[in-house]
Amino acid sequence: MSTQGYEDELRSEREYVADLYARLDAERVRVKARHKAALLGTGGTALERDDEVRAMGREAKRLDVADNGLCFGRLDTQQGERLYIGRLGLFDEDDDYRPVLQDWRAPASRPFYVATGANPEGMRRRRQFHTRGRRIVEFTDEDLGRPGDDASGDAALLAAVNAPRGEGMRDIVATIQSEQDEIIRLDNPGVLVIEGGPGTGKTVVALHRVAYLLYTQRERMERHGVLVVGPNPAFLNHISRVLPSLGESDVVFVTPGDYVPGLRVTAEDTPEAARVKGSLAIVGVLKAAIADRQQVPEEPIPIELSGITLRIDASVAEWAIEEARAADLPHNEARDVFTDIITYVLTERALGRLTKGWLSRSDKEEWESQRRHLTKQLAENERFTDALNALWPMLTPQSLLQPLYESKARLGRAGADPALYRAQGDAWTVSDVPLLDELVDLLGRDKTADRAAAAVAARTQREAAEYAEAVMGMLEMDREEISDDFSLLAKDVVNAMSLAERQDEVDTRDLAERAAADRDWTYRHVVVDEAQELSEMDWRVLMRRCPNRSFTIVGDLAQRRSVYGATTWGEMLKPYAADRWAYRSLTVNYRTPAEIMAVAASLLAEFAPGVQPPDSVRASGVAPWSRKVTADELPGAIEEFVRDEAGREGTSVVIGPPGTPGTVPASETKGLEFDAVLVVDPDRILADGPRGAAELTWR
Question: Which of 233, 324, 356, 688 could, after both became Cys, cross-link 692 (CB 3.0–4.6 A)?
Answer without folding.
Answer: 688
